[in-house]
Design goal:
Rossmann fold, seven-stranded parallel sheet, three-stranded mixed sheet, 14 strands
């Protein structure tokens, strides 16, 4: 079995690479990445890429059909991956998250690839008051990132055939420790803030809902997606029903793990429209053996241990390089990255 992970050198991809090696020990694993965040490593660990048989470097806007030769499954993780980046680089977000995804799927289909997996997002539900949203409910994407995921899903649906299984996994908000840690994710940010300052500042009123999933559990669901049978085309919410939390509840969980943490809430904040509960019952039926297992308490514990062991707390400015938008801006200021997020040198 040959699994190609496009966007393997990011926060999620680093974990997925290692997980796939542990799970499919005899598989041929290859990665393709532009290495924008390759240096965003924490801790003294071997590079995640040692899990791969082959690491290729390139921009997804320059994909070549030969990349998909003799590949059995493609996992498409490449993305401009959060709302602040999407807002600043809206055109690039649409190209990488949607157009390049569709191009990759078409090339994969032409080369006889059997499984294509898109890491989509529950953010497509946007502002969704009331009951938890199922895959059959209406969507309301509010950001460039969410809109790009919706468009990718819609165009992938047009490619469905009996020749390739296409899985669009609408993941809950990612969290948890990775060797390429991100701190522009809500739970990860709260843990880092509590560790460094003893405080968590909630910029909203704390009431917005978010479903969460540990990055390791994301990899487990991808394992199912690259081996599944059944419907040729599938959109499924990826998470668990018990893991819908308000932002204030997340802060409370972190404070429980780090006693003495002070929580402040911006009571005067404008309502955060990005609020949604998600129903993951379909996944329970489709993949009962691959449901998320890691509790929020365990995720927080591993984040605390990982950050402490990484020596980040001893750095002068420990976390700026772990916020993806900061990284892009720093590269642009140095002139090594242009406004289209392409390497210049």
């Amino acid at each position: 079995m040959h699994i190609l992970i496009i966007g393997n050198m990011g926060y999620v991809g680093s974990v997925v690479s290692q997980y796939m090696r542990e799970t499919f020990q005899s598989a041929y694993l290859s990665g393709f990445d532009s290495a924008l965040f390759a240096h965003c490593l924490v801790g003294e660990h071997p590079l995640p890429e040692i899990s791969l048989n082959n690491q290729l470097f390139g921009d997804v806007r320059d994909l070549d059909p030969s990349l998909f030769e003799k590949v059995d499954a493609v996992i498409y993780l490449a993305a401009i991956s959060n709302d602040p980046m999407g807002q600043q680089f809206e055109v690039v977000t649409d190209i990488i998250n949607k157009e390049c995804c569709i191009l990759a799927a078409k090339m994969a289909l032409d080369k006889g690839v059997k499984h294509f997996v898109l890491a989509s997002s529950c953010s497509v539900y946007g502002a969704a008051a009331g009951s938890a949203r199922t895959e059959l409910d209406s969507i309301n994407p509010l950001t460039a990132y969410a809109k790009s995921k919706v468009a990718a899903e819609e165009q992938l649906a047009e490619l469905q055939s009996d020749k390739m299984f296409i899985s669009c996994l609408r993941f809950a908000t990612a969290c948890g420790f990775s060797q390429r840690l991100r701190l522009d994710l809500v739970l990860n940010d709260f843990v880092a803030s509590a560790l460094t300052t003893g405080k968590i500042s909630i910029l909203s009123d704390g009431t917005p809902w978010r479903p969460l999933i540990d990055v390791i559990d994301m990899a487990r669901i991808m394992e199912w997606a690259v081996t599944r049978s059944g419907d040729p085309f599938l959109i499924v919410n990826a998470g668990r029903n018990s893991a819908n939390y308000t932002v204030k509840e997340l802060a409370d969980y972190v404070a429980d793990a780090l006693p003495g943490t002070e929580i402040t809430i911006n009571e005067k904040a404008q309502p955060d429209k990005r609020s949604y509960k998600v129903d993951f019952s379909a996944l329970e039926i489709l993949a009962p053996d691959y449901l998320p297992r890691i509790s929020i308490a365990t995720t927080i514990k591993r984040l605390i241990e990982g950050i402490k062991d990484s020596h980040l707390l001893k750095e002068t400015q420990p976390f700026s390089r772990l916020v993806r938008l900061h990284t892009l801006k720093q590269f642009m200021e140095k002139g090594v990255l242009d406004q289209d997020i392409r390497w210049t040198k």
